[in-house]
Amino acid sequence: MNNNRRRNFRSRPQKNNFRRRSVAINSNGSSNLNGNGNLNFNRNGSMNNIHNVEKTMQKYQQLAKDAQSNGDPILSQNYLQHADHYLRRYNELNEKRESFNEKTTVDEKPSPKADIKDTESQQKVN
To answer: What's the predicted TM-score (pTM) here?
Structure first.
């Protein structure tokens, strides 16, 4: 009897800035979520910013000191393991940055042959 009755609610359009866990399906049928729920964490790049990694490492070191002073050696060890993880990540990012800087400085240096040609052309002008 109420089959033709109009519904009282309207569907709202999905907002782009609202966090939703969406699963993208690849062409081979697998999903992008990997089942671990860390999609947003990996997307924002927090583990690629060396300053964020350093800050997080220092936070866990401070938490370990606080736990040790409160008499909880197990929690302190847990925090130290977290800090150690971020220290390894920090060192890894440092190595990448240094190798990138070395590569760019090598690429920017002109070859010795170009220097010789420049000096010869300057001498001909003078």
So the answer is: 0.50
